[in-house]
Design brief:
Order of helices and strands: HHHHEEHHH
Largest sheet: 2 strands, antiparallel
Strand order of the largest sheet: 1-2
Mean pLDDT: 78
Helix content: 55-70%
Length: 158
């Protein structure tokens, strides 16, 4: 009887570990990006289950993808507007400091979800490549992929 309790105890402990990795109900109940949660998420945080952290990272990546194209278009339009209106009284105004900075922001946004494209293209960014959003999203994306693989392994097919 004692062996049976020990086995059940170990199974319960194992299930607890599994639910730290993936909880189907918890995962499916979180549907939208929440900036208040993502700002405090640390991937090595032992207080929150791994699936919770990964789910919020996934939603953040999706959120960035929806903002990226409109933001890039807005910056590109602003650069074009500055270039179009850079003359005053017959003199060309020095716009390159402003347009170069805007272009670097645009490059970083445009490649925010594609780190490889950013590094291969050699386009400048405002920070070093490993401090870009693209790099951080790539690392989060890799983690999401691994959790998805574990999810398939841990959860039986319906």
């Amino acid at each position: 009887m004692e062996n049976f309790r020990d086995v059940i105890s170990k199974i319960e402990k194992f299930l607890g570990i599994c639910y730290q990795v993936y909880d189907s109900d918890g995962w499916n109940n979180i549907k939208t990006y929440n900036p208040n949660i993502i700002k405090d998420i640390k991937i090595d945080d032992k207080e929150k289950p791994l699936w919770f952290r990964v789910r919020h990272i996934r939603l953040f990546i999706d959120y960035i993808n929806t903002l990226k194209d409109p933001a890039v278009k807005s910056i590109t339009d602003k650069i074009a507007e500055i270039k179009k209106n850079c003359e005053y009284g017959g003199f060309m105004l020095p716009i390159s400091p402003i347009t170069n900075i805007l272009q670097k922001y645009c490059n970083e946004l445009e490649n925010s979800t594609d780190y490889e494209k950013m590094t291969i293209s050699g386009t400048g960014t405002m920070v070093s490549y490993i401090n870009t959003l693209a790099y951080k999203l790539k690392m989060g994306g890799i983690l999401v992929e691994h959790i998805s693989e574990l999810k398939i392994f841990l959860m039986p097919a319906d």
